[in-house]
Amino acid sequence: MNAGRVLFVGAGPGDPKLITIRGREALQQADVVVYDRLASPLLLAHVKRGARLIYCGKERDRHTLPQEEINLLLIQEARRGKIVVRLKGGDPSMFGRVGEEAQLCAEHGVPYEIVPGITSGMAAPLYAGIPLTHRDYNSSVAFVTGHLCDKNAGKEPDWAALARMETLVIYMGVKNLPHIKAQLLACGKSEDTPVALVRWGTVGEQQTLVGSLGTIDRDVVQAGFSAPAIIIVGEVVRLRGELNWFESRPLFGQRVAVAAKPAAGASDALASKLELLGAEVVTLPLVERPLLAREASAFPEDFAAYGWVVLDDEQQAAAFLAELGRRRFDLRRLTCKLAVRGKQAALYLESRGLYPERVFDHATSSAALHRELGRNGERILYVCAPAVNVPAQAAVELLHLPTGGVLEWEEAHPVAPWIKKRTFDWFAAEGGEVLPALADFAGAGWEHVPLFCADERTREVARQMGWRVVIAEDLEGFVRGIRPREQLASAT
Q1: Which of 104, 157, 238, 428 would disulfide-bridge 452, Cβ 3.0–4.6 Å?
Q2: Catalytic choice (94, 122, 165, 172)
Q3: DSSP character for 176?
Q4: What is the pTM of this model?
C-alpha cells in the first residue's frame, strides 16, 4: 500500500516557535519538505536526517520554482510513497494557494492534510502592540489582499464596503499603497484614520511605521519602508503607544548565537531567558565527534598511583564514568578519593552510588584546589575538557576527556547555511566545552566578539582560550547596563 501523502503546513509568521504542535510533528515525519521564503529556515531543524529539502522561495516577480512545477513535484513525490510537507509562511489558506494545491491532490487521488498556521495578519499587529479588536474602538475586522494576481487583475475589491469597516488588515499592499489610500479616501474614509505598517513581524528585524491615511504613502517612501509588511487601518492603531510590548523589551533588535550542548536543558533555559528579554536567539547546531583513539589512550588502566581524581564538572563526571563503563572497569577497584567542582557534579556521582570526598565551588581556582588536595604529597589526576588550561604542577596529571566526544559546529546541518549568513551582536554560552565549537563557527576574529557566559566556570574557560570581550555580569546585571546595538558592534 502506498503511504504517500501531502501535508500543507502553516509555518507561522516568522518566529519559529509560533508553529503549531501538529505542524512540528508533520516536519518530523516528512521525507520531502518544500518550503518558501516566508517560512523560517530554523524550522528545518525539526526535519529528520536524510529528508529532501526543496526551496521554492516566492518573491514578487521572481519564483525559484514556478507554481506548475511545485504542483507536479508534490504529486510525484507522494505517489512514490513519500510524506511531503508543503511548508507555507503564516497560514496556508490566507491568501496562499493551498486551495489550488489541495484540489490538485484530490484530482489525482493523493491523500492530503491541511495544518493551519498563525497568520501574519493577526500576529504582526499583536507583536506591534495593536489588537485587532477592542470594545472601545471596533467590533469588526476585514482581511484583504492588496495584490491581485493576473487572473483577477480586473476584479477590484469592494472599496466602498471596506471603507465602512472599522479595522482593515491588508496583506501584500505596500507596492499598491497609493492606490489603496486613494480608494479608501474616495469612499469616505477619513484622512485622520490611523494606519500602521508592520514589517517582518514577530522577529528581531520587526519594524513598525505609524501614520495617518492621508499621508501614509509618503511616509512609507520617506522611511524607505518596504515589503513584506502588514498594513492595519483603523482606530485600534492608537493602542500601540500603550501596548507596545515586543519592541520595548530590553534586548529587542539584538541577535544572539547561543552555543548549547545537544539536548542540554540548562542551555535551553538560557536561550529562553534571552528570548523573554527580547533577543532573537539562534541556537547553533552542534554535534559530538567520537573520541579519537589518541585522546582515549591517555586514560589510565589503573588508578592506584593517584590519591585523588578531580572531576572538573558534571560533564566530565559523566564522561569519566562512561569511559570506565566502556572499559568494563570494576568500580570497587577505584581506591583513590574523588573530588568534584560544583554541586551538580556531586549530585551526578551520588545518583550512581559514588560519594565524593570533597566538593569545591566553581569559583575555586585550579591552583588553590591542587594545593588543598596535594598537601600530603598525593598525586592528582585532573579530568577536564580540552579547552581548559590548567597551570602545570608536579603532582598533577591532566586528563582531557571530552563528554562522549568533542563538540563541533555542525556545518552539514540543514539550517547551517542560513545561520552562517546571519550577523550576530554577541554570543552566549553555558559550559566551557561548547566554546571551541562557538569559536569555530565565528571564524577569524572570534576572540573579539562579545561573549556572555552563564557562569563563572564558562568565563574562566573563555578567558583561558583568549576570548577578549567576556561579559562577566550575571544576565540581569548585563541587561540593566546593556548598550545599544551600534555600541556592541564597536566593541568587536
Answers
A1: 428
A2: 172
A3: T
A4: 0.77
